Amino acid sequence: MDSLQFEYRPGIGVDDAVIYLLHRSLSHLESTGSTVTVMFFDFSSAFNTIQPSLLRGQMEGAGVDCHLAAWTTDYLTNRLQYVRLRDCESDVVVCSTGAPQGTVLSPFLFTLCTSDFSHNSDSCHLQKFSNDTTIVGRVSEGNEFEYREVITNFVTWCELNHLRINTSKTKEVVIDFGRKASHTAPVNIQGLDIEIVEEYKYLGVHLKNKLDWTHNTDALYKKGQSCLHLLSRLRSFGVCRSLLWTFYDCGGISDLLRCGLLELWKLREGKEETQQTGQTGWLSPGLLSGLH
Q1: How much is the pTM?
Q2: Which of 13, 49, 142, 266 is the most exposed place for a label (fewest CB within 10 A)?
Q3: Distances from the Cα of 155 to the Cαs of 43, 111, 160, 192, in angstroms?
Q4: Domain-embedded: residue 224
Q5: Model confidence over 103-150: pLDDT tens digits?
């Protein structure tokens, strides 16, 4: 496993990946006249590009038992897929690429697929968190040869391994604390100049080119206020304290809370559904049982 892969390692997680990126960036900036360039890569349908034919060798190379590697590649090969909507069914398609969506297996297998490529030197490194790949380089006196060479090698490696880079969502951030901002020519990947942005959301953290945490703090504050507002609205509808704690402890519950508030409001006010359905507002069975 790549030493700079921060997922699926005991005692290491998202915070470690963000802290390591910031530590290396700040260490580079201690050198006089240095700037830091960070390339955040985005893959197109990352988990759908896993190649079982290449995966088996990578799994065995990582120490996975040969029988388990064979079973995994057999599971991913010749999968029958179709779409069914009520009584209608699409044609059956035989799929031998990618991994089923929504499973824990998909990001883990993608991690193994990308373990072959790594780079870590004093002035440039590549770090990963599953399919989130980042290259951080130090630019001294305008010399960014190693940084751009690592990017070129990584793009070439992705093409050889059938990984598709989404160049429109891949972004670059230039961190420069100098009085006069240095001009940086955009990196060209697959014929497209990568956009240089002032801010990028990396693993849920808003990183700015001046490493100013104001925007990230504001985002966290607004998220907290939104959650508290929804909880206060639920309380006004008479939801019990234990259920409020359940909503508070659950992450990513905002959409469910909004839907719940909407349905509670329609139920209390006697509002009707949209004209397309023509039905009065009812609580969905799942939410209703949960509230009870």
Answers
A1: 0.76
A2: 142
A3: 11, 17, 9, 13
A4: yes
A5: 778 888 888 888 889 999 999 999 999 889 999 999 988 888 999 999
